[in-house]
Amino acid sequence: MENTGNDSEWREKLTPEQYHVCREKGTERAFSGEYFDCKEDGIYHCRCCDAPLFDARTKFDSGTGWPSYYQPLGADAITEHEDMSYGMRRVEVTCSACGSHLGHVFPDGPRPTGLRYCINSASLKLEKRD
């Protein structure tokens, strides 16, 4: 399903929280998501379209309560957008394949990139590595 897909199809496919986060640019509560403290190895995919987004090997504990990664799986996996909501200037990240809201990227991450992709668990699903 693409971003322009039928809204009722998204509502059928996603839980109310996943829909709010992915399709309405919502944010889950800190320390509440399925993956904020997950240490399992694998690839994190888009909850909406299953596109591969982040490798668990780039995940780190940012202390923020959301899954955080220092880089996406590939430069074309995500799209960045300026976000001026809530009186702040931030950079929103979305799935390049379907436009699903993932979270935001901040310039306070670890080496080697110095970036922190702060992502909602509700927008992800982990496919464990064999």
SSE diagram, text form:
Blueprint: H1 7-13, H2 16-24, E1 42-46, E2 52-55, E3 59-60, E4 68-69, E5 78-83, E6 90-95, E7 101-106, E8 116-119, E9 124-128
Antiparallel strand pairs: 1-2, 1-9, 3-4, 4-8, 5-6, 6-7, 7-8
* Strand and helix order: HHEEEEEEEEE
Residue-averaged pLDDT, rounded? Answer: 93
Q: Structural class of the secondary elements?
A: alpha+beta
Please work out how many helical segments DSSP would assign.
2
What is the makeup of the main sheet? 6 strands, antiparallel
Sheet with the most strands: spatial strand order: 3-4-8-7-6-5
Short description:
This protein is an alpha+beta fold. The protein is built from 2 helices and 9 strands.
For this entry, give a set of tags.
single chain, alpha+beta, six-stranded antiparallel beta sheet, three-stranded antiparallel beta sheet, 2 helices, 31% strand
Explain what this protein looks like in three dimensions.
This protein has helices at residues 7-13, 16-24; strands at residues 42-46, 52-55, 59-60, 68-69, 78-83, 90-95, 101-106, 116-119, 124-128. Strands 3-4-8-7-6-5 form a six-stranded antiparallel β-sheet. The longest helix has 9 residues, at 16-24. It starts with 6 loop residues before the first helix and ends with a strand. It has 130 residues and is an alpha+beta fold. The protein is globular. A hairpin with a 5-residue loop joins strand 6 (90-95) and strand 7 (101-106). The chain contains two helices and nine strands; from the N terminus they run ααβββββββββ.
